[in-house]
């Protein structure tokens, strides 16, 4: 059976329940695509590509070193590294000259659009449509013209919790195996997490970045905390883990409350303890110097330390 006929049959079957079949079904019925359509992907005009790149300029600059690093790992294996926007338009890429002709012929090139609505089931489009890491291997693609490629993709989420981009590694090798795909897929996911974390940090340059959870190694669970110890930003994974707003700006909250650092102190006592602890740290444990910095006497500082639960930590302190 021809690939196009098989895809059409599976797409229209009411018993098709796999994620791949669901994507084929969307491609055929929702988007009205023909698996036998041999046309190349739509290509943006120069002006449209320039506008999209300009809109993502800060993100692209932050991501570039990570793309270079990923390409250094996979480029010699006949792979093409692509970075798209949330609509599946390829904004940046890394490819060897020896492989460029093949990828250009496939349309895996800067300025082309690989949304699922435009190209059916494919690594970039299906990753963006489902918001998850995917691998589309050869004849898992919707269009017959795309079955010669293997595509490994991971989503990148913005600081506002919204889907921002897709990171893709596509292979032109005829002998590409599913086992090798898994190795590349793991590297793609790791790089996507790194880009997401670096861009999150760059988006809150005046905040300190706190790892909100060590439990999820598959996502960047980060909080941005301001000088008043209020959480003012969170990655998508942190929003989910901590029950914060799903998208957009988050309502500032005490970081200690979100991170579960509960104790008997509340309100101004917590703020005072933080101020005393900072003064002691800056004075390298010298109580007299810390007291002078706070504008109080040394005896007063000792009393406050005891009340605030800092007395037990005075082993490394000096009286000055």
From TrEMBL:
Residue ranges constituting the DNA binding HTH domain according to the UniProt record: 271-307
Segments passing through the bilayer: none
GAF domain: residues covered: 66-188
Pfam families for this protein: GAF, HTH_8
Gene3D superfamilies in alphabetical order: 3.30.450.40, Homeodomain-like
Source organism superkingdom: Bacteria
Protein name as catalogued: GAF domain-containing protein
Species: Paracoccus fontiphilus
């Amino acid at each position: 059976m021809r690939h196009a006929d098989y895809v059409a049959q599976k797409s229209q079957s009411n018993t098709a329940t796999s994620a791949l079949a669901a994507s084929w079904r969307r491609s055929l019925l929702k988007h009205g695509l023909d698996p036998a359509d041999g046309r190349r992907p739509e290509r943006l005009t120069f002006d449209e590509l320039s506008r999209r790149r300009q809109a993502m300029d800060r993100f692209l600059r932050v991501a570039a070193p990570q793309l270079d690093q990923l390409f250094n790992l996979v480029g010699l294996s006949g792979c093409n590294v692509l970075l798209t926007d949330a609509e599946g338009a390829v904004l940046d890429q890394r490819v060897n000259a020896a492989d460029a002709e093949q990828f250009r012929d496939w349309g895996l090139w800067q300025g082309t659009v690989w949304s699922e609505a435009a190209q059916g089931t494919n690594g970039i489009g299906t990753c963006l449509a489902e918001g998850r890491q995917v691998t589309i291997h050869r004849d898992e693609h919707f269009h017959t013209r795309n079955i010669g490629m293997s595509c490994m993709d991971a989503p990148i989420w913005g600081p506002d919790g919204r889907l921002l981009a897709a990171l893709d590694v596509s292979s032109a090798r005829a002998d590409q195996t599913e086992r090798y795909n898994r190795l590349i897929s793991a590297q793609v996911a790791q790089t996507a997490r790194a880009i997401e974390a670096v861009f999150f940090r760059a988006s809150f340059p005046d905040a300190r970045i706190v790892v909100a959870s060590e439990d999820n190694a598959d996502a960047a669970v980060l909080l941005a905390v301001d000088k008043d110890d209020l959480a003012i930003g969170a990655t998508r994974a942190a929003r989910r883990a901590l029950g914060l707003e799903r998208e957009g700006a988050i309502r500032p909250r005490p970081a200690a409350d979100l991170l579960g650092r509960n104790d008997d102190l509340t309100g101004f006592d917590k703020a005072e303890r933080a101020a005393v602890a900072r003064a002691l740290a800056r004075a390298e444990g010298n109580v007299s110097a810390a007291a002078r910095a706070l504008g109080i006497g040394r005896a007063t500082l000792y009393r406050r330390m005891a009340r605030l639960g800092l007395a037990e930590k005075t082993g490394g302190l000096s009286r000055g």
